[in-house]
Each structure stands twice: as C-alpha cells, then as structure tokens.
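Hey, I'm writing a tutorial for new members on how sequence and structure tokens pair up, and I'd like a real worked example in the thread rather than a made-up one. If someone can provide the structure for the chain below, I'll link this post from the tutorial.
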Amino acid sequence: MIETQQAGGSPSGTSTPIKVRKLGHVVFRVSDVERSTRFWTEIMGFFISDRNERGMVFLRHGSDHHSIALTAADPGEGLAGRERIGFDHLAMEVGSVADLFEIRDFLRAHDVPIVYEGRRGAGCNPGIEFLDPDGYQLEVYASIDQIGWDGVSRPSSQWRRAASLEQVLAEPVEGARY
C-alpha cells in the first residue's frame, strides 16, 4: 500500500531536498523527427522553440523554452535503450541551482546513479539526470529559458554547454539568474 503525505515529507519520515515545483518537460525518442514534429505542431498545437545541432526539436505550449522534445532513436548511440523509440526522460523543475548542488549530494549519498550533470544546449537549463530503480531517466533542473511574447528564443550562439554544476556557475549564460 502506498501512503499519502503532505508536501515536503515522505511516508518513511526521511527528508529529501528534491522539492519539485512543476513537471517540466518530456523527451521522446522517435523514428522520424520531422513526422513527429508535424504531429506535435499541426495536431497538438505546440510551437517550435529550437532545433539543436544533433537534430533534436524543442517544442513549447507556454513560456517555458520547451515542454516536449523529440530526438531520433539512434542504434549507433551505444547507450542501452536509446536505440528504441519511446520515452527518453521526464524533467522536473526545482527552485534554484543551489538546490541542484544539495540534490546531487543527496543522490550520491543514496547511491542513485547520476548519468549527467551540467547544462546542455537549447533552453540553457542546468540540471542533473539520474535513474530510478527501474532505469527510467529523470531530470531535475532549474532556470529554464522563457520565451517572450515575440516567440523568439535565445540564439544558439549563446548556448553554453557545461559538464558540471560547478562549470554552470563558473560560465553562466547571458542573463542567467543563478
């Protein structure tokens, strides 16, 4: 039986620093990125925010840089499961980059496998990606770019990839409020 609890607590009485503010985005591995993009724009009514150099498409329905992202299933990628179409990862927003440091320490202390930390490209959101007990990839992130009334996103020339949370702070993107 799964217990319910108030926000901030857990059934076991332990405390976690992971305080999800909202569900952020879902990434799907698809067989045909262009066909799926047409579905998400023409049928579902989403807007394209960006495309990255790897062919990923980032789609939005509100002001967050993306709510859905599409990436091609890639049998040559070499990562288990990435060759199949389906779910890639679910991302959840937390309050700040400072929270991400605390979360990273907590995950490590609980032997949760971390598969990525830092900042990727489009959306410029720093985050941590890790696996749940069944191997589903989850992400917690902070400070995703917002799209204004003009519908224009940050130019790709301003994307700054970072391979660690420390690098995120040392090399912030223009206008970042970390």
